[in-house]
Amino acid sequence: MSQLDSASSEATGSMWEAGLWRENPVFVQVLGMCPALAVSNSARNALAMGLATCAVLVLSNTVVACIRSLIPRQVRIACYILVIATFVTCIDYAIQAISLDLHRALGAFISLIVVNCLILGRAESFASKSTMSAAAIDGASMGLGFTLALFMIGAVREVAGSGSLFGISLFGPNFQPWVIMLLPSGGFFALAAWLLVFAAWKERQRPRLQPLEGRAQ
Amino acid sequence: MTEPMATSATAVVKTWQMYRAMVGLGVLCGSLIVTSFLVTRATIAENRRRALDLAVRTVIPGADRIQVFVASSDGGIARGTEDNPGEERVYAAYAADGELLGVAIQGRGLGYQDLISVLYSYDRERQAVTGFAVLDSRETPGLGDRIATDPSFQENFIALDVTLDESGSELLHPIVAVRSGEKQSAWEIDGITGATISSVAVASILRESAARWIPKLNDHWESMRQGG
Among A143, A198, B9, B41, which has the minimal tally of Cβ within 10 Å of its Cβ? Predict the structure, then answer.
């Protein structure tokens, strides 16, 4: 029993690691690029968008896993979309109730969570074959991974493009902002910069080739 | 003979399962959406009202009480409510002693990306627009969205001339946007470099809205003054 327990906790740990790092939705799977690049012009917007997506992902994954035995294969995609669209609409109302300013900043991208390929991808590839609790953990880990990635892109763009983080000025009034970082192209630059950092880090992790012996001869 | 019958029976079961899944899920999801709409409706309406109230107090400082007016069917203006979202409204702001401080007018028009919704105040004594705020816009961050934040753009609205002509039915000088730094007359709006389309859009929103509302407000100023 204890062996089973430790095996399952190991599996859970590995799921968290997969979502946040090993299979990060943005940096590794390159999914959900549209909101990742469009709404990440400030740390606050990026965080809000990431958390909204995460909430939809957890709820839809859980419900899809719960009803998976009742859904015939032929209509499964339509059913998943219906579930996802419902939660997106509810989250949309919730954000409007929490803050209208935030809702305005996120604009049309809240509704577009419906077509975020990350969410449908997890429903089809994971939740439709798993238990409810595993699907919920998978949703949370992938959602938080998405949030983390969006926040990392958003923070870089806000610091470079406005000279502030969460609206707090970092460099004083003399800072000349790089407006391009706030424009859509800035999203690509920030994403590329992070991918470069990760690639360089992975390269350093790889064991170095041993120098061939007797090369000097 | 039995084999085709069995196949058709399976097909019927499958069809029924598909209907059950789609319709059942549809009903459940529909109920969930309606429930969340009903639960959040009051809070969202309150948030909208508060945001607008704040905007009116920004463009007309010192306002104590705000009364909504709408265009009535006979061409005049009448007291209105916030209930009808499609209606054009103006907000008369009164000081604590009941004096009419000014009227905030809501205008809307196409910007660079989407509709821009603005609120500006009209001061009848000075025949000028004396305050301006952007209620809603999706202009480019860092460029077009400076219509809401740029201090030098806001300076255009300290006293933007909207004097009426002799007939009192049209503006003497329609509001226009000019290039940054080229403003010469009180009815011109100094544009923002890098946000020409958004600046021109603001000017045309104000021009059209002012041409429609200001003659009407002038005609009914007395009744609005007494409304306080």
Answer: B9
The arithmetic mean of pLDDT across residues B196-223, rounded, is 90
**What distance in Å separates the CA atoms of residue B170 and residue B223, rounded to the nearest whole number?**
21
Full domain range(s) for residue B219: 44-226
Tens-place pLDDT, residues B120-151 = 999 988 889 999 999 888 787 778 888 888 88
In a domain, B67, yes or no: yes
Please check whether residue B189 lies inside any domain of the structure.
yes
Nearest to B141 among A41, A100, A101 (CB): A41
**Chain B residues inside the 8 Å CB shell of A93:** 36-37, 39-40, 44
Q: Quick check: A179 and B138 CB within 8 A?
A: no
Residue B141: its chain A contacts at CB < 8 A? 41, 161, 182-183
Q: Is residue B85 part of a domain?
A: yes
Residues linked to residue B118 through DSSP beta bridges, in sequence order? B107, B134
Residue A165 in domain:
no
**Using a CB-CB distance cutoff of 8 angstroms, which residues of chain A are in contact with residue B29?**
82-83, 85-86
- Give chain A's mean pLDDT: 86
* Minimal Cβ distance to B25: which of A79, A161, A179: A79
Quote the minimal CA–CA distance from A33 to chain B in Å.
Answer: 19
Number of compact structural domains in chain B: 1
Residues of A in contact with B21 (CB under 8 A): 67, 70-72, 75, 79
On whether the CB atoms of residues A179 and B144 are closer than 8 A, the answer is: no
Among chain B residues, CA nearest to A40: B141
The pTM score is: 0.78
CA B90 → CA B78, B81, B123, B168, distances in Å? 10, 10, 13, 19
C-alpha distances out from residue B147 to A5, A96, B50, Å: 59, 24, 22
Q: Quick one: pLDDT band at residue A209, thresholds 50, 70, 90?
A: low
> Would you say A36 and A149 are in contact if contact means Cβ atoms under 8 Å apart?
yes
Range of the domain at A13: 7-152
Residue A58 lies in a domain: yes
More confident of the two residues A208 and A215: A208
Q: pLDDT tens, A160-199?
A: 988 889 888 888 888 888 888 988 889 999 999 999 999 8
